[in-house]
Amino acid sequence: DSGVTQTPKHLITATGQRVTLRCSPRSGDLSVYWYQQSLDQGLQFLIQYYNGEERAKGNILERFSAQQFPDLHSELNLSSLELGDSALYFCASSVGQGLWETQYFGPGTRLLVL
Amino acid sequence: SQKIEQNSEALNIQEGKTATLTCNYTNYSPAYLQWYRQDPGRGPVFLLLIRENEKEKRKERLKVTFDTTLKQSLFHITASQPADSATYLCALEGTGRRALTFGSGTRLQVQP
Prior knowledge:
The complex is a heterodimer of chains A (114) and B (112). Chain A has 114 residues and is mostly beta strands. Chain A has no helices and eleven strands.
């Protein structure tokens, strides 16, 4: 158990819908990262927040947005969902913002868009 | 263009043997490289980090080498066990050193 929690575990929805994925980092970690993992794309970095501020952005679609709240939990919002958005979404956390720091991954949310 | 290459074919070895996984990269100049383990349907778990000025790093039965001239890292598991069966991912700093970029991983299967 990494100490990172993600909810929900599974999500089934329809195209065009909007969903919110939630992540609680390990106690004391200030950075939260979001990744998408699909069979054909591997693990892709989406976005990082550090202590409430956006720190780095990857190949995140405009339909996707995220935020980190004062209590450091984070939410990833996915809207106008398409079939291709079906994937595992992982949240990770680390103490600081350096890329040399160990990232602790949560169990993931499996999203299926029908 | 930038690329991280890991053998996409599964590696099958016998229990007790040494498994060697390869991570090659192109057009990166990473200051360090990380290895993670991922079991099916679960999040990656950090294993080791090696810095550019380190040739080799060990942790129990794991050993990582980092050759910045060859642009390659080798990941070794000695005395492998069936419980070592998993996918192993290498990761390094991406463009602008703003995020980690992961390789696609190599699946290791250790036969009893």
